[in-house]
């Protein structure tokens, strides 16, 4: 997330109005019911909205959300590039960079920009053209812009290849889970079934007027975690923001402790990591929640369970049931967790790289249930729909 604070010293700066031409007057909204399907993309605040039989623009352009954008979570993106024949509705500003601005560089500057200081509207957040024109943009020499954009494109490509590799390894997750925790206790009388809310404590972020924004965001201090800091269900400190100790002290909750689990409630639903590493605490943003396992539950086990493919698929399902995709504490509290009884729980290794010395006498194949066929877990319909048939989560490699 880019803020005005980050732009004060790196390069000379200009207002957005000085580096682009606004083409908003050419936009035309068309209701979905009045739209005739065709070969041309129809764009809005957050990307492709459908297809249409005509076009307005036919050039590389930059779209910046006007209303309905992800202004409260810029990590999800508030700007994107388009090119070719296209149609844009009135929910996105249409920007044509001036000749001294590289469109890829400008997109990188704006795509995760913290626009909250420029937003108006009490019921529906809106970035007016007048306010958008005041956005501060760094303007290095054109060759430098292109160099920076190329480096970031290469980094994105590497991340994409990494995600593809992780996806190919996902089929191994079930076997790794068994290897981590020794001989399976699945379908065993020594295991217990508990709702997640009964074996852990939930803590949301502080969403009061104290919530950090604008000049509160610093380059050092107490970490301020966002959804961007969870990558492949691990804590990623590569793009870390900070707040001051005094700001942190003024916040009443949302303060992570070592071995807490942090889960995303919006954006990429259900991404989960263990808070570990060099920092003793951190503040989470409004799109995340802390899950603090009680003393008889291993955070390593709980993290492994919550990141099983079947569980993540279930979280996606219940989160996408709302008008705005999101998970709630109530839904997560009702999630059934099959876990070893405290007196019979195997001791997990200190690191997922360790290998259990216990023999695996009952390996789980793809499609095995997490509990006995006799199990009759029935989460309350008020909290979440049941897990895949037969009311138990299925371990799936896909």
Number of helices: 11
**Uncertain regions spanning at least 5 consecutive residues:** 182-189, 345-398
Strand tally is 22
* Secondary-structure content class: alpha+beta
Helix content: 10-25%
Average pLDDT reading: 79
Sheet-strand content, in percent, reads 15-25%
Radius of gyration: 24 Å
Cα(first) to Cα(last) distance is 32 Å
Largest sheet: 4 strands, antiparallel
* Morphology: globular
Strand order across the biggest sheet? 2-9-6-7
Give a structural overview.
The chain has 398 residues and is of the alpha+beta class. 23% of the residues lie in helices and 21% in strands. It is built from eleven helices and 22 strands. The protein has helices spanning 16-19, 103-111, 129-132, 142-169, 173-181, 196-199, 245-250, 299-306, 309-319, 329-333, 388-391; strands at 13-15, 20-22, 40-44, 47-52, 57-58, 61-65, 79-82, 85-88, 92-97, 136-138, 191-195, 200-204, 222-225, 230-231, 234-235, 241-243, 255-256, 261-264, 272-274, 282-284, 288-293, 336-340. Strands 2-9-6-7 form a four-stranded antiparallel β-sheet. A four-stranded mixed β-sheet has the order 4-3-8-5, with no helix packed on it. It is globular and about 65 Å long. The relative contact order is 0.12. The model is unreliable at 182-189 and 345-398 (pLDDT under 50).
